[in-house]
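[Solved] Which block belongs to which protein?

Original post:
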Amino acid sequence: MNMKRITILFVCLFGVLGSGYCQEKRLYNHYYLTMKAIKEGNLSDFENNVKHIKNIDSLCHTDTDHSYTLLGYACLYQNKRLIQRLIGMKANTECVYSDDMYCYDALYIAVDKGNCELVKLFLSLGANPNEAYNEDGLCPLAMSCNTNNFPVACLLLQYGAKANGLGNLGGDYITYPLIIAVDKNNINMVKVLLKYGARTKVRDKSGISPLFIARRHKNVEMIKLLERSR
C-alpha cells in the first residue's frame, strides 16, 4: 500500500515538474518568436506572441554578453512602428539593454544607431539627455561627438544636454564632448558646442586641452576658432 502511494506521489511530482517545464518552454518560445518578429518587422507575428508574455521588460540574452528587453531589441533594429507599439504597452524605456556591466536606456541605443527620429522620440518622452552611462562620464552628447553625428548632437543640445559633459564622476577619465569633437577634426561640431557654452579651457586628467589637440592635428581653422573663444 505504501509503495503504491509513493508511486502515485512520484507520478504527480513528475507531472507537476513536467508541466512547469512545458510552460517555461512555451514562454521561451513566445519570447523567441516575438524577438524574431521584431527583427523581421512582422507585426502580425509580434501581436500573436507578445500577448503571451507577462513581463515585456524582462532582459533576454541575445549572446553571452548582451541582453535586451523587447523595446531594446526593437530599438536595435530601429523598428519605429513596433517601438511605438511597445511604448503604448507601457514598456520601460530606462533599462532596455545590458552588457552585464551596465544597464542602458532606449536613448543610448538610438544615439548609438545615429537615428535622429528615434532620438527625438525618446527625448520628447522625457529621456534624460545628460544620462551618465559609466563613471567616466560617457553620455549621449559625448557619444554623438564620438560618431561625428552632428544632427543628433544638435538635437541633444536643444533638449538640454550639457555642452561641457558631465564633469568628474570619479572614474579614471573625464569625458569632454569638446575634446572629442576637436580630436575628430569636426569644426561644425566644435562650433555648435561653443554656441551652447562649451568651455575651451577644460583639460582631461592627462592635462590635455582642446587647443593642444588642435595644434597637434595642425588644424589651423580649429586653432583660430578655439583661440577666439578663449
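(Second protein starts here: sequence line, then its C-alpha cells.)
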Amino acid sequence: MTSSLLHPGIILIAFGLFIPLIKNRLIVLLFPIASFIILFSLDNGTIIKLDYGNYELILLSIDKLSRLFSYIFLLILFATAIFSINQDNKSEISSAFVYVGSSISVVLSGDLITLFIFWEIMAITSTIVIWSGSKQSYYPGIRYLAVHLLGGSILLIGIIGYANTTGTLAFGLMSPDNIFSYFVLAGFLINAGAPPFSSWIPDAYPSASWSGTVFLSAFTTKTAVYVLIVGYAGYQFLIYVGIFMIFYGIIFAILENDMRRILSYSIVNQVGFMIVAVGIGTEIAINGASSHAFTHIIYKALLLMSAGSVFYITGRTKCTDLGGLYKTMPLTMICGIIGALSISAFPLTSGFISKSLTVQATVYEELKILWLLLTMASAGVFLHAGIKFPWFVFFQKDAKIKAQDPPKNMRFAMIFLSALCILIGVFPGVLYSILPYDVKYVPYTLDHVSSQLQLLMFSGLAFFILLKYLKRTLTITLDFDWFWRKFGVLVVSLFDTYLLKKVHTLIHSIDNLGTQTIRSLHKHSGPSGMLGRSWSTGNMALWTAILLGLFLLFYLFA
C-alpha cells in the first residue's frame, strides 16, 4: 500500500483533491513537477500489482509508449495550470487535476479493471470541468456524461465477458476472435469521438470556461488513442473509422461560426488521423499515431489558449463578432498562427515531423487510395484550422473591439507552447528518440518539404478564392447530435406514454381485484353472510365431526 504512493497518477489525484484548500495558486504548479519527477525515476516494467480473487491487478506498469503519453500529459497540465492561474473557480482546477491524474493512471494501468476504474473517474471529473463553465454548461455536461456513461457501460460488459471467456484481465493486444473484444473496442471508440458519437466533442468542449476547454482538449481523446494502440493495433476497419472522422471534422469545421467549436471539430479530425495509423498497425504507423498524439496535444492546447484568451478578454466566441484583433492582441495572434501552422504540418513545426510518419506508413504499405485521402485531408486541415481560425478572429473586418493581450501568465503559457511547436519541428530527433519503435524515417527531404509547401500554398489560394462563400453568418450548424437529441426525446416520450398506460392498466386491475375481494369477503363474512349468521348446535357438531374424520383419514394414509 505504501508503494502506491509512488504512483504518478494517484499522487496527482491526491494533490488535486487538496487544491480548494490552497490559497497560493503558484503552489499548484509544483504538483505536475512532483509527479513528473516520480515518473522519471521509475524504471520500465510492472511496478505495483495486487491480487484480486483469481485475477491480478496491475496498477502501475511502464513501457516506452505509456511513458511517452504520461510525459506529455504532465507537460500540458503544467502549461495549462500556468494559463489558468486567473481562474477563480477552484472546483474546475481541482477536478481538472483529478481528471489528468486519472488519465495518467489509465495509461499506466496493466489490467482492464484498473483501467475501467480510472476511466470512469475521468468521465465524472471532466463533466465537473464542463459544468464549471457557466449556467449554460449544465445541459451540454449532462449530454457529455450520458455519452460517457453509455461508453463505460459497454466497456464494462466487454471487460466482464472478456475476463470470463479468457480467464485474464491483463490488458494488451485483444483477441480478434473474442466477441467481447469488440465491446471493449466500442467503449474506447466512444471516448475517441468515433461515429456515431463524434458530436459530443464540439457539443461539450466549447461549453466549458476559457481555461476548461484547454484542459479537456488533451486527455479524453488521447487516452482513447493510447488504449487503441495497445489493444487494437492492426485492426484494419479502424482505417475506415478514422477516415470518416477526418472528413467529418473538416466539413463541420468549415461550416462552423464559433471559433472554439471550429477547434473542437478539428480535434475529431486530428484524432481520425491517429486512428487511421492505429488501423494500419505497422511500426512506423504506431510511431506516427504516438508522435501525432504528442504534438497534437501541444498545438491544440496552444490554439485553444489563443481562442481562450480572445474569449477571456472580449467575451466573444463567434467569428461574425470578431476581427481586427491583430492590432490589439498581437502576441495572442502570433501564438495562434504558430499553432495553426503546426496543425497544418508546416515545415519546421511539430506537426510536420509527426503527421508525415502516418502518411509515409501508407507509402510503405502501398495504400495508394488512403495516401490520396490523407493528402487531401491535410489540405482541408490547413483550410479550416490553418487559415480560417486566425483569419476570421484576428484579421478580416475590424470589429472595433477594445482589447489587449491577456495577463502575463496566459502569455507565458502560449509562448512556452509556441516554442515547443517550433523546437520539436526543428529538432525531430528529440521526439523520435522516445517513440515506441526506432525511427529510420527522415522528414526533411527536398521532395517532402517542397510537396508539402505546394499543398499548403494551393490550399491557401483556394481559401481566398472561395472566401466569400466561407464567410459565416449567424446560423446554427446542425450536427448528428440533433438526431440523438430528437430521437432520445422521442424514445423517452414513447416509453413514458407506453409505461404510463401499462401502469394505469395495472393499477386499474389491482383496484378491480381488490374491490371484488372485499365484496366477496363482505358477502360471506359480513353481518348478513353465511359465516356471520348464527348456527345451531347440531350443525356445529356435524361440521366438527366431518373435519375430525378428514384429519383422521389423512393421518392414516399419509
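Accepted answer:
You had them paired correctly. Confirming on the second one: The chain has three domains: 1-148+200-229, 233-473, 483-512.
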